[in-house]
Amino acid sequence: MTPDLAGRGVVVTGAGRGIGEAYAKAFAAAGARVVVNDLDADAVTAVATSLGDDVFAVPGDASSEEGVAALVASARDHLGEIDVYCANAGVARGGTEAVAERAWDVSWNVNVMAHVRAAKLLVPEWVERGSGTFVATVSAAGLLSIPGAAPYAVTKHAAYAFAEWLSMTYGDKGVRVHAVCPQGVRTDMLRNSGTSGRALMEADAVDPDDVARDLFLAMEQERFLVLPHPEVAQMYAHRASDPDRWLTGMRRLAGGLPGSVLGAD
C-alpha cells in the first residue's frame, strides 16, 4: 500500500545513494515533491535529475545547526510546506570507548543531533497545523546494539530514543514519527563495514527498496516501528525479558568475530 503523498513536500537527507535514494524514488513515484540532500553534491544532483522536475537537489551538511537551518529554509523555498522529513543521513564509526574523539563527535552530530536540530525547526509548525511526519532512519543496532562499534551502537540507541520521545510528546498533536530499524542493507555502508560487519549482516541483507517499501507500509498503518527484518522484534523482546542472558550471548558473538566492526576513523 502507498500512503496518499500526492503533492506533499518531502525532504530526504543522505539521499545520494542507498536507503536515502530509495526513499526519494518511492516518494517521487507516489507523486510527492521532494528535496534530496547529501554531502556528495554530484551524487544527490544525479538522483534529483533522474527522478524528474518535482525533485530538487540541495547539497550540503544536514547535521550542524547552520546546515540544518539552511536545508530547511531551502526546502521551504522549493516546497512551501515540509510535510515529511526523513532524517536518513548517518555515519558508521566502529571501535571501542578508546576510539578517537572525532569519531564520537561526528557520530553524535550526524546520527543524533541532526534529528534534534531538524525537529526543533519543524515540530512547532507541525503542531500548529496539526500534521507532519518525521522519519528517523535508525538501525537494528539502536534496539539490539552491535559488537565492536561503540560510537555507532550508542548513537543509534540515542536516535531511537529521540524518535520515541518525539512520538510520545507530539503524537496526540498530529505529529507522526517512524523509526526505521533494519539490520544489514545492501549499501556502501555494509560493503565498507569490514570482515566482521559483513559476517554479521551480509547473509540476511535486504535491498534499499525493501526498506522504503516497509516505511510506506508503516506510514499507511500509522505504525511507529519499521522492521525490514521482522526477526528483530523477537530479539528485542528477548533482550528486554532477560538482559543477562542477552549480554552473555552478545559477548559470545563478539568473541567469535575476526576484528572490529565498521570503520574507526
The strands making up the biggest β-sheet line up spatially as 3-2-1-4-5-6-7
Order of helices and strands: EHEHEHEHEHHEHHHEHH
Query: Helical element count?
Result: 11
Q: Structural class, from secondary structure content?
A: alpha/beta
| Relative helix content | 40-55%
**CATH structural architecture:** 3-Layer(aba) Sandwich
Using the coordinates shown, work out and report the CATH topology.
Answer: Rossmann fold
Shape: globular
- Chain-averaged pLDDT: 90
* CATH uppermost class: Alpha Beta
**Alpha-carbon distance between the two ends:** 41 Å
**Strand-residue fraction?**
5-15%
Task: List low-pLDDT spans.
Answer: none
- Total of domains: 1
Calculate Rg over CA atoms. Answer: 18 Å
How can the largest sheet be summarized? Answer: 7 strands, parallel
Total number of strands: 7
CATH superfamily: NAD(P)-binding Rossmann-like Domain
Keywords: Oxidoreductase
Family: Belongs to the short-chain dehydrogenases/reductases (SDR) family.
Protein name: SDR family oxidoreductase
InterPro entries: NAD(P)-bd_dom_sf, Sc_DH/Rdtase_CS, SDR_fam
Describe what this molecule looks like in 3D.
- By secondary structure, this protein is α/β, with parallel strands linked by helices.
- It has one domain: Rossmann fold, CATH 3.40.50.
- The protein has eleven helices and seven strands.
- A seven-stranded parallel beta sheet has the order 3-2-1-4-5-6-7, sandwiched between helices.
- β4, α4 and β5 form a beta-alpha-beta unit.
- The mean pLDDT is 90.
